[in-house]
Amino acid sequence: MIERDLIEQIRSLSSADAPALVQGIGDDCAVIEKSGNRVWLLTMDTLVESIHFDCNFHPPELLGRKAVAVNVSDIAAMGGKPTFALLSLGLPEGFNEEWTRWLSLGISKACEQYGCLLIGGDTVCNPSGVSLTLTVIGEMERGRVLYRKNGQVGDTVWVSGQPGRSAAGLALLQSGIRLEKNTDSSLRPLLKAHLDPMPRTALAIDLAASGLVHAMQDISDGLATDLSHLCHQSGLGACIIADYLPPCEGLKKAGILLNQDPMDWMIKGGEDYELLFTAPPDATKTLQLIGRDSGQPLSAVGSLIEAKSVVLVEKGCGTTVSDEGTDISFQGYEHFQVG
Amino acid sequence: MIERDLIEQIRSLSSADAPALVQGIGDDCAVIEKSGNRVWLLTMDTLVESIHFDCNFHPPELLGRKAVAVNVSDIAAMGGKPTFALLSLGLPEGFNEEWTRWLSLGISKACEQYGCLLIGGDTVCNPSGVSLTLTVIGEMERGRVLYRKNGQVGDTVWVSGQPGRSAAGLALLQSGIRLEKNTDSSLRPLLKAHLDPMPRTALAIDLAASGLVHAMQDISDGLATDLSHLCHQSGLGACIIADYLPPCEGLKKAGILLNQDPMDWMIKGGEDYELLFTAPPDATKTLQLIGRDSGQPLSAVGSLIEAKSVVLVEKGCGTTVSDEGTDISFQGYEHFQVG
Which domains, from first to last, does chain B contain? Predict the structure, then answer.
C-alpha cells in the first residue's frame, strides 16, 4: 500500500459535503468560508525525525523554521496569505532542553516572518524522536483561490526557482558536506534549500492576484509526482521538456561530486517548495514580469496535453504524447511502500 | 521541564494579536472569526502509541474513534459544534493494512457521528509506532463561547458524569481485564470510558445556550489539573468536597479488585472527557434539568474561592481555604518530567 492508496481509503470513508466547505480533500489546502467574499485555507503537514530530517546535521532553529515553511508553502500553493498556526510537538523522553529552545525559536521566528500567529496546539511524548505537526491557516479572496483542478489543454507549465536543489542538498549533507563559512558558494543554495526552504508566499499572492493562472500547487514530493497530481485533478497529462529545465551551477557541481545525474534531482527530488502552475501561453510575458518583480526566476518547462500521463522529452513537443517521451508520472518520493 | 513550562516557552515566543483572532493560546480551542456573529473554534490533539494507547488491548476501530473524540471534546469544552477535521496519521514501516483499515473506519464513523467532515491532512512514517494528530474545527455563536477565564468567586463547580472511570478502566486493562461479553457489568463503563470515550457535545451546546455557565473546559488531564487550569485563567482558587464526588459501583469494585483508592482516579485520573464548568449557585435547578434532559448526570462538587490553589476537603467548606484541606493543584497526568 502506498500513500495515495491510504489517502484514498480514508477519503472514501468520509462523507461528502458541508455548507461552509468550499474545497475538501484533494488539494494543497482545504478551503472553508470566512466572512464576505473571503475564505480560510487549512493545511496540515508533519515532519518526523529520521524520516524527514536528521538531527545530526539539521540545526534545531532551521528545523523549526522548516516545519513552519512546509505548511506555509501549502497556503502559498493556493495563492493565500498565512495567518495562524497550531503546533503539535512530539519530543522523546529526556529531550535536550537547549536544543528544544532553539527549535521553539525557529518556529516562532518563522511564524513572525510569514505573518502567522501561533494560536494553539499540543505537546506529547514521542518515543522514537522529535515530530512536528503543524496546521497552518491562511486567508484570501474566494474568487482568487488557485486549485489543482483547473489546468487546461495547451496551458504552459511553469516552475519557480530551481527544482532539485533540496534533494541535491540532502545528498550533499548525507555525504558529509556542511553549511559552513568556507562551503563552496555554488553548493550553499542546495544545502540551504534542504535545511531552510523558503516558500514562495509573495510570488504566489502576486500570481493569484494576476488572474492569469489556471492551476497551481507547490513542489513537495518532486516535480514529476506533483505535476501528476495537478494533471490527475485536471483530467489531463503533461509533456515536460528536459532542455527547458537547465540545472544551475550548484546542481552540476553536486552531480559531478556525487556522481549523479542532476536531472534525477530536478524531476524526482522532493521538498523544493517551489511553485508549479499552469497558464495560457499568451500570459507568458506578464508572468515573466511578475517573476522578475518577486525576485524568483520562473521557467516555462512544458505544456498540459490531452493524455493520461506526464512524459519527459529531450526537446520541445506538440500536443500529443511523443513516442520517445519517458513516462515520469508519480516518480518521486513515496511515504510508504508496503507489501 | 514539564509540559506547562514548554508551552509557556513556545507561547512567550509568539507575537500577541491579529485582527481575525478572538482567542489564542490558553484555552481548549483557539477562536477565529467566521461570518456575521459566528466564530470558528480550532483544536489540535495527538495520540501516540505506547504513550496514549496500547495496541495490545486497544481495538483499532475504537482507537480511531478516540482520536476524533478527544478533539471533539475540546470543541465541546467551549460549547461549540464540531464541523471539520484534518488528520495527520503516522504509521510505522510495514504497518498492518487490515488493522489500518479498521482504524480508518473508526475515524470516519466518529467523524460522521459528531458531524465533522474530514477535509485534509497528511500521512507519514513514524518509526516508533502509530500516531494520530487531528485538528478539529467547530463553530458557534461568538457571544456564547465559554472560556476558562470567566469563573467568578462563589461559582459552583460542576462536573458531568463520573470522573475517574477512564483511569480506572486503563488500570483494569493493564491488569488483564478485557471488554468481553461476560465482563462484569459494573466494570464495563470503566473499560469503555478508556477505550471509547464519548465527548459531551450535546450537553455542552445546551449549557452554552443556557447563558448560565461562566467558565468551562473538559477533563482531559484529570479533575485536579484541569480545575487548576480553569482557576489559573480565572485568577481564583477552588475548594472541592470529597463527599460530593461519590464513586460509582464500578469504581468501588475496581478499587477493591486493584487495591486502589477510587478517590485517586476521580481526582487525578485523566482522559475522562467529561465537562467541568462553573455557574452561580442560583443556576443549580436549571442546570440539573439540562443535565437530566441530556442524559448526563451533573454533580456540584465544590466552589470557586479567593485563593491561589485547588484544595480538597472531606466535607463542605465556606469561601476560605480550610486548614484541613489538601492542596491538589495540578496533581494529575504530566506529559513530560525532565531533569
Answer: 3-144 (3.30.1330.10), 156-327 (3.90.650.10)
